[in-house]
Fold this sequence. Notes:
Blueprint: E1 5-8, E2 19-22, E3 38-39, H1 47-53, H2 60-71, H3 74-89, E4 92-96, H4 105-116
Parallel strand pairs: 1-4, 2-3, 2-4
Amino acid sequence: xxxxxxxxxxxxxxxxxxxxxxxxxxxxxxxxxxxxxxxxxxxxxxxxxxxxxxxxxxxxxxxxxxxxxxxxxxxxxxxxxxxxxxxxxxxxxxxxxxxxxxxxxxxxxxxxxxxxx
Length: 117
């Protein structure tokens, strides 16, 4: 199974993107639905976790651990099954709205997927 690519949702679509999947809990402002192929909001961190971590990259490891625990819960597991199906079918780009391109839930999800194997 291939690993997904990452991209801010505001960046233009590229031919290499494959299926573009939004992995944020909230729909990004000003983004039309035609820029996103699938929205897996249940794979995103909970509102509580998102608020705790927002703008605090120094808590990155704590966030990743808490997010990994949430990925084991029922709503996220169902969304992960959909993501796995898409990854098996071809290229996937995980979309996120965060300004911080190194510390966001899409990066944490990609790392989790790589560690999962």
